[in-house]
Amino acid sequence: MNNLKLDVADQIAVLTISRPGALNALNSETLDELNTALTEIEARDDVKVVILTGGPDKKDNPYKSFVAGADIAEMVNFSAAEARAFGMRAAEPFFKLMNMRQVTIAAVNGFALGGGCEIAMACDIRIAADNATFAQPETGLGIIPGFGGTQRLARLVGMGRAKELIFTCDNIDAAEAYRIGLVNKVVAKEELMDTAKKMASKIISKGSYAVSIAKAAINNGYDMDIKNAVEMEANLFGITCSTHDKTEGMTAFLERRAADLTDF
Ligand code: CO8
Questions:
Q1: I need a surface site. Which of 32, 105, 160, 251 has the fewest CB within 10 A?
Q2: What is the CATH number of domain 208-254?
Q3: Which atom of ligand 1 is nearest to the CA of 57?
Q4: 68 ligand 1 Cβ < 6 A
Q5: For the CA atoms of the chain, what is the radius of gyration?
Q6: CATH 3.90.226.10 is right for the domain spanning 4-204
Q7: Does the structure show a pLDDT above 90 at 264?
Q8: pLDDT higher than 90, residue 224
């Protein structure tokens, strides 16, 4: 992989987007590498949580940029057909981040602009360094957010705030991103990866199968009417009740001991 690094330890996969000369902007090659890496990760039993972050810039500053957007140099001469194909090329790995059985956490270590904000929003959880900057600057470039931003931003922060951010292209800092619900947590930049890994470890300590079913329930139910969504949840609840983890988790509670949760 040219633009992506994968490190796996303690059941956590850290995926680092690394294009130092372009502040980790997403080009076609990077999107394809991301898609391949996520497909491989989803099939790995030894990975329970994925942390997505950005590599250092060319001056080796690890807190400059998460992802500064889609690659403008690649997009500048796109025809309408090429632009659509580029959008669909991103849709696949972005949907993987959203729907894969493992939990995905974006550790936002600097600029999260345009496609950078969009890829963070495709993750389950966002943790921001206190120096992070978020924006959807697309309309200033004569385009619109095309990696799901018009949809995911409105779902995350509400339609009014999404419209304001997309129409004004305003930069917001990490504190404001937290205030409007765009990120789950803000931490000192030096503590970003530790915080993400600690959260990952906490999630891993729970029943991993139950966590993945809960993720599916939340995702699938989001676009359903409440009656069908609750029925779908009841069905998935039933499935979790046939697992070793359910028997062990509840028995351990009743016996006042720590549960030895496995994967199923
Ligand atoms: N694409 C390509 N190259 C980039 C990008 C980018 N998005 N962002 C930064 N770079 C490059 C710069 O060109 C520069 O390269 P070089 O050193 O060769 O000149 C290098 O990274 C460093 O950048 P700067 O010198 O500009 O660094 P500064 O510290 O001065 O500024 C900023 C940092 C503020 C982040 C600035 O680089 C910037 O504004 N970048 C662009 C941000 C932006 O507009 N992002 C949105 C892009 S559009 C988008 O994401 C659309 C997504 C949906 C597409 C859907 C298609 C279907």
A1: 160
A2: 1.10.12.10
A3: 22
A4: yes
A5: 19
A6: yes
A7: no
A8: yes
